[in-house]
Amino acid sequence: MTQDRRSACRSSEVLGAFAEGRLAAEERDAVTAHLDTCPRCREEVALLADFIDAGSAPARRLPIGWAAAAAAMIVIATALVVWRGIPRRETQPIAPLVAASAALDHRSIEPRLHGFGWSAYRGAVRAAEEDRTPGRLKLLGAAGDTLQKAANDPAADAQHAAGVASLLIADPAAAIVRLRTVAERTGDATAWSDLAAAHYDLAVRLGRASEYPEALAAADRALKIDPRLPEALFNRALALERIGLIDDARAAWKRYLDVDGGSPWAGEARRRLEALPAANPP
User: Fold this and answer.
1) What are the φ and ψ backbone dihedral angles of 209, each rounded to 5 degrees?
2) What is the reported pLDDT for 89?
3) Which of 25-39, 199-213, 214-228 has the lowest mean pLDDT?
4) 180/188 Cα distance (integer angstroms)
5) d(Cα 162, Cα 157) in Å, to the nearest integer?
6) What is the pTM for the complete model shown?
């Protein structure tokens, strides 16, 4: 992966490819882990996501290197469209949600969504009903745009993004409907994992304990497809904690840390593991 020589930060070309969803899975995961700890790169990704989503010249001044990289990508992509004679998606539908979430200093749901960076969880009620900061309002706007676009786009990636958008605006019931449809239609592990997150969040918001086993089942479905999917491993461990299966939760957190031992998500997993009781209550 190309990096700036002066630091560990990714180059504008790499961040642009991330915002457009053009990176391979391993590269994408590496960039996501870097964004967890780098505000500068998060801002750059957010700027590019806005730029791509606008489909025209940016409304505000961008750094010279950034503007040149964005212009170069547009020229290349346009040439490919002409050469191939096929329509082009400007960006993955999920990208604006990831970029808007990256600008926040907290997350509104406790589980882990695929492709989203880590931030502290402050509780569902505060995040959904009381938070009116500019960052939260920007996320609500991105979610609204995603839902509007999905109304006219039946593609699986658009519907998956709409399910995540519903979850981010505190409507997990709608998220479950969309994400289950996508998961059953595509067999995609990330859709099953995000469905687990939606069931878990519905349980938290409504006090409906019966949703935790549903979250566990969805996470297990994801792991049958991709046994090392970090998001599914994280969500599975959370569900086992809530169900009260302490020994199983302990094993699940250790399994997660075997896959991800160094990211901020791993730090949270380690704290949760250390906070577990010594054994299941009698």
Assistant:
1) -60, -25
2) 38
3) 25-39
4) 10
5) 9
6) 0.69
